[in-house]
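Fold this sequence, please.
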Amino acid sequence: MLRKSAFEAGESNIFDVSLWLGSVDDTNVLIVIALAFVAGGLVKGLIGGGLPSIVVPIMAIVVDPAFAAAVTLIPVAATNIWQALDGRLLGPVLRRFWIFFLMLFIGVAAGSQILVGLPPQSAALLIGFAVVFLSPIPLVAHYFRISPSRETVLNPIMGAAVGVLGGTTVIFTPVLVYFAMLRLDKNLYVAAAAVTAICSMVPLYLGLGFSDALNWGAVRFSVVLLVPTLVGYCIGRALRGAVSQRAFRLILTASLVLLGIGLIYKGIA
């Protein structure tokens, strides 16, 4: 399934397909990965978040979870930088949540070391349980409310806790739930989710890089995966007004829970 790329084998022809496919040579696996990024891009375009939460569980069924996390680099970076700068809300978001983002950064850095140190089966099992138990939470988030006066205390605690969990499982659903409970304005919510993704991305990919999970082969493959991501993203933006957010979340949650069950089975099989 995985092989040395043309670059690692001493070749440097940029037109050699194997140079860009991140050492994945199984056609069925490539199709699963491409569809995963279309689905992740669609969700990103529709609700403004959730790309790694969709992509990594699907990919973890067919490849090493650490490799799955590594190749999300370029799609996650491109879509979230675009989203963070849109609407000129970056300044207000940073002023309000800077301590949350700082503790998130530290937590992800610690959690990513747990991820790369786990055997692939154990990592798949952990991600599976995280998906199954965390995916339904956004469905009930609107029933709860957190007073802005409690942010001073909760921001550093939530940042650190979600960071460790997200760094270990690449599932950052609790962040979106936390922002939903704060009743953020829709545009501020999207901007905050994007900055969260960026703050999570840097320590996560640094941790993967130090462990060799993120190498140049994975980066080149990640560039290729930007294409299906943008296809899905454009479809998601087009569908945003046609599908109710609640109906979409129900379908998405059911799909993620099924994926999580599949990962749990993979971990214990």
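The two ends are 19 Å apart (CA to CA). The first helix runs from residue 17 to 20.
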